[in-house]
């Protein structure tokens, strides 16, 4: 390195102007596209989760209702009213 | 998406080279470039033509580069803290891997020393040196990018030069 008198720093800084522009690898664009796609997917994640939760709740509700119906049907089949209706 | 591709085509080299001046490392600069364009993609709808697109991208590039270095520094500090606790002795501060593809081999030694001093500057002073001396921007352009007055740019530049001189002298003393 050169000696550092008052004007020397400008000389040192002049070295920076000799830095050549570097070329970016084309693969980087593909990585950016992957990241942006992942970000878009993340945006829809709460909506997808909400839809799935609604679906699960609806399924549980349907099963419970079906079980209730079949239990009621079963109870009726075993009841005296049902037996009497055949007699 | 086509619009984004055009923006990328036009500004990716600018962002990559800017990140290189901050990190002096190809891999880190590529990572920053990715972060910058993901951010551009997310916020392009919010961009208002009050400033030029290039100025806006420069701002994102500077912020992402500084954030990246801050994260790297704190990671390193945590690592050393753990090491000190384990070994109970002081570890020497390691320099980042100098891997700047724009630096010619014959200038590598001088520029490594210069960048070592630049890296010791405060964020704003470092940015001023990079924009004025490497990117070749005028004081007016730098003022627009950093959203400060040209007077403030000049003042920061003078302070940066003063501090650089101190850091370079210190380096020289240590070499002797």
Task: Describe the model.
The complex is a heterodimer of chains A (87) and B (176). By secondary structure, chain A is an all-alpha fold. Chain A has a domain at 27-86. Chain A has 3 helices and no strands. Chain A has helices spanning 8-14, 27-78, 80-86. The longest helix of chain A is centred in the middle third of the chain and has 52 residues, at 27-78. The radius of gyration of chain A is 38 Å and the shape is rod-shaped. Chain B folds into 2 domains: 1-100, Rna Polymerase Sigma Factor, Chain: A; 103-176, Arc Repressor Mutant, subunit A (Orthogonal Bundle). Chain B has helices at residues 2-23, 26-43, 53-87, 108-118, 123-134, 139-146, 150-175. Chain B contains 7 helices and no strands. The relative contact order of chain B is 0.10. Chain B is mostly helical and 176 residues long. The A-B interface holds A 1, 4, 8-10, 12-13, 15-25, 28-29, 31-32, 35-36, 39 and B 8, 12-13, 16-17, 20-21, 26, 30, 33-34, 37-38, 41-42, 100-104, 107, 110-111, 113-114, 129, 133-134, 136, 161, 164-165, 168-169, 171-172.
Summarize the topology.
The complex is a heterodimer of chains A (about 90) and B (about 180).
Chain A: H1 8-14, H2 27-78, H3 80-86
Chain B: H1 2-23, H2 26-43, H3 53-87, H4 108-118, H5 123-134, H6 139-146, H7 150-175
Helix pairs in contact in B: 1-2, 1-3, 2-3, 3-6, 4-7, 5-7, 6-7
């Amino acid at each position: 390195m050169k000696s550092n008198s008052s004007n020397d720093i400008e000389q040192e800084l002049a070295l920076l102007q000799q830095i050549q522009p570097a070329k970016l690898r084309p693969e980087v664009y593909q990585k950016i596209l992957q990241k942006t796609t992942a970000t878009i997917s993340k945006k829809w994640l709460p909506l997808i989760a909400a839809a799935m939760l609604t679906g699960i709740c609806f399924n549980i509700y349907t099963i419970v209702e079906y079980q209730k119906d079949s239990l009621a049907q079963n109870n009726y089949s075993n009841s005296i009213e049902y037996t009497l209706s055949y007699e | 998406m086509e619009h984004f591709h055009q923006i990328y085509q036009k500004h990716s080299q600018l962002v990559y080279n800017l990140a290189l001046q901050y990190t002096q490392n190809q891999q880190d600069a590529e990572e920053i470039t990715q972060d910058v364009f993901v951010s551009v993609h997310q916020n392009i709808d919010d961009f208002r033509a009050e400033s030029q697109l290039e100025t806006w991208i420069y701002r994102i590039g500077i912020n992402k580069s500084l954030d990246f270095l801050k994260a790297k520094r704190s990671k390193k500090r945590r690592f050393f803290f753990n090491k000190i606790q384990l070994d109970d002795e002081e570890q020497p501060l390691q320099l980042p891997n100098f891997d700047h593809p724009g630096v010619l081999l014959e200038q590598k030694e001088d520029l490594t020393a210069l960048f070592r001093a630049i890296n010791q500057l405060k964020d704003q002073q470092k940015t001023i040196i990079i924009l004025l001396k490497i990117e070749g921007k005028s004081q007016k352009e730098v003022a627009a990018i950093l959203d400060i007055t040209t007077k403030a740019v000049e003042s920061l530049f003078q302070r940066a030069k003063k501090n650089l001189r101190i850091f370079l002298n210190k380096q020289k003393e240590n070499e002797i």
